[in-house]
Amino acid sequence: MLKIFTIVGTRPQFIKAAAVSRVINEKYIGKIEESIVHTGQHHDDNMSLVFFNELNIPRPKYNLGISGGSHGVMTGRMLEAIENLLLSQRPDWVLVYGDTNSTLAGALAAVKAHIPVAHIEAGLRSFNRCMPEEINRIVTDRVSTLLFCPTERAVALLQGEGIIEGVHNIGDVMYDISLFYREHARKHSKCLEQLGLQEGVFALVTCHRAENTDDPKRLTEIVAAIGRIADNFPVVFPIHPRTHKLLNDYGITHLLGSTRILEPLSFLDMMALGQAAKVILTDSGGLQKEAFFYGVPCITMRDETEWMETVITGANVLVGSSAEKIFSAYIQASMRNTVETGKPYGDGNAAGKIVSILAR
């Protein structure tokens, strides 16, 4: 039996892992044994447990409980704990997702223990090496045996770096998830009703990236723009705990004006809100794509993005952190009913292709 360890630690990774776990549990019982290792990077129930419940993911077999601290401290603690686990259990493969500290620690621990690594969402590049995520994904790609790319562009970027062996364009597992759960979310989430929101009559905002939250000037510009939008149109802001703390530390929460600040929402509630929003403003890579999948205009409050397909098609616009640019982009987006996107992220069977290749 093929023994796989899946290393996850953040809510986007739980969601992506759900697609692969579902295929294993439905089609490879008795052939593949998957053990989920939760590093603890996102540890509270709103950021962690609720996703395992809603997505019907097997509970983690191992929970390392590692969170907080600087990037080096967190990654180092994870590396040590994962290495001990791998040396004692000796899986055949280690699966890592995306570009977090959990991704890097899992990949490094595995390759040093001579266990092959499969990287899901390989080949993404923002070309901004000030982002910790950029370093994590570059290093992970370099040490991986199998590189599962979500797009042709990702394959081409790897080729440009001389990485050709083991590269597969399988599509995006998030597209799998979107197709599988979107109707379920619309039917079963009561979020819109509970918040008194009407479809197409609100803006959805998220902001959590360190490049924005750790810079008081950037965050002030962003929240000022959000507050200005909220003066004209309903805005809901499910807020990351760290972002909430920094807003208070900087003394700028009042700039949000009439914005409705919410606790972090469950996966199904966020999916229901994303589909129903008139426009999405975010610095999240995952939410950029979800907006793309739903045909909802997206404004990305970053200077660059790994998901250039969303920009090239016109579904998404990069505005940085300028309050004026954010508000201007909102005005333009609010006049659109939907966006045409095409299908650059595959056919919705990325997870099936991943597991099939691993099984071979």
Rg from alpha-carbon coordinates:
20 Å
Tally of contiguous helical segments:
16
Output the helix-strand order.
EHEHEHEHEHEHEHHEHHEHEHEHEHEHH
Cα end-to-end separation:
12 Å
Query: What is the architecture of the largest domain at the second tier of CATH?
Result: 3-Layer(aba) Sandwich
SS-derived structural category: alpha/beta
The major pleated sheet works out as:
7 strands, parallel
Give the total of domains.
2
Overall average residue pLDDT? 93
Comma- or semicolon-separated keywords:
13 strands, Rossmann fold, alpha/beta, 7-stranded parallel beta sheet
Question: What's the topology here?
Answer:
Blueprint: E1 2-8, H1 11-27, E2 32-38, H2 49-54, E3 62-63, H3 71-89, E4 93-97, H4 101-112, E5 117-120, H5 132-143, E6 146-149, H6 152-160, E7 167-169, H7 173-188, H8 191-195, E8 203-205, H9 210-213, H10 216-230, E9 235-238, H11 241-250, E10 260-262, H12 267-276, E11 279-282, H13 285-294, E12 298-300, H14 308-312, E13 316-318, H15 323-334, H16 350-359
Parallel strand pairs: 1-2, 1-4, 2-3, 4-5, 5-6, 6-7, 8-9, 8-11, 9-10, 11-12, 12-13
Helix pairs in contact: 1-7, 1-16, 3-4, 4-5, 7-12, 10-15
Report what the structure shows:
The protein has 360 residues and is α/β, with parallel strands linked by helices. The protein folds into two domains: 185 residues, Glycogen Phosphorylase B (Rossmann fold, 3-Layer(aba) Sandwich), CATH 3.40.50.2000; 147 residues, 3-Layer(aba) Sandwich (Rossmann fold). The chain is built from 16 helices and 13 strands. A seven-stranded parallel β-sheet has the order 3-2-1-4-5-6-7, sandwiched between helices. Strands 10-9-8-11-12-13 form a six-stranded parallel β-sheet, sandwiched between helices. The model has no long low-confidence stretch (mean pLDDT 93).
